Structure formats: structure tokens, C-alpha cells
Amino acid sequence: MYSLEFVDGSIFVGGNPDNSKWGNIPNKLIKELQYDYLGKEITLTNFEAYNHLVKYTYMLATQEQVMTGVIIMVKEFDIVTRFCYDLIKNELIVDKIEYGKEYNNKPASGWRAGLMGEKTKFKID
After folding, report:
1. 45 near 122, Cβ under 8 Å?
2. Residues 6 or more apart from 65 whose CB is under 8 A from it?
3. pLDDT tens digits, residue range 1-47?
4. DSSP letters along 14-41, please?
5. CA 55 and chain centroid, separation
6. Each residue's pLDDT tens digit, 58-92
7. Is 104 left (phi over 0), alpha (psi -120 to 50) or beta?
8. Exposed e or buried b for every residue in 48-65, given b needs 16+ CB within 10 A?
9. Distance (Å, rounded) from C-alpha 79 to C-alpha 102?
10. How far apart are CA 107 and CA 121, in angstroms?
11. 8 A C-beta contact, residue 82 and residue 103
């Protein structure tokens, strides 16, 4: 699903949406995040911070949680760029929002530090 390259050159490979292993990421500065999901590959490089969320909806009829989206976020100064995989509409939506309002108009937890200094880049294939 995703891999991280750290500033020291080491690599961390994440899991799947149900067990992303985001909480197991070593405490190292991230240089690049590569995320491959639903046939879309996103590469994000040289951002200040990185985050990953999975959205679920509770279905009353079945009494189950159903995954409805995956959100990848990067921070650059006070702006967060969100890459939202909408699993209901089967589309990728990209938008920007002020830091601190990135998830339901509130701050998101789980940010991992990156290292700014070089030009930030993102690519979607």
C-alpha cells in the first residue's frame, strides 16, 4: 500500500488499509512517501510532515463498519494538501486546507516528521 524512504536512506513498508502499520513507523525524518492504492500511485517528496487516515462508516443495517475512504496528507508550512481516495465514488480528490482543520475542521493526530529544505514535489500516476 505504501512505503517510506527516510533521510538516512532506510525504507519502511506499510501494510493495508485495515492494518496500515502507520503507528509502527520508526521515529526518523521522512524524505519520501510512495502510496499505491486503487491503481493510483502518489509520490510525495520533501514535505514538513506526513499523515495517513482511513475513514469508516457504521452501517446500521449490518452492524458493521465499512471503509469509505483513505486520506494521505502532507504539510508544508501552515497548509495541508489532502489526497482523498473516495471508495464510494471510486475517485481521487486533491484539496488544500489550513493546518489544524485537516480532519472534520479539527487537527488530525498521527503526523510523522519530514525534512523540508529542498523543493517539495508530488506526482500522481
Report:
1. yes
2. 56, 57, 58, 59
3. 899 999 999 999 998 877 889 999 999 999 999 988 777 789 999 99
4. --BTTB--GGG--SS-EEEEEEEETTEE
5. 12
6. 878 888 888 888 899 999 999 999 999 888 888 88
7. left
8. bbbbbbbbeeeeeeeeee
9. 9
10. 23
11. no
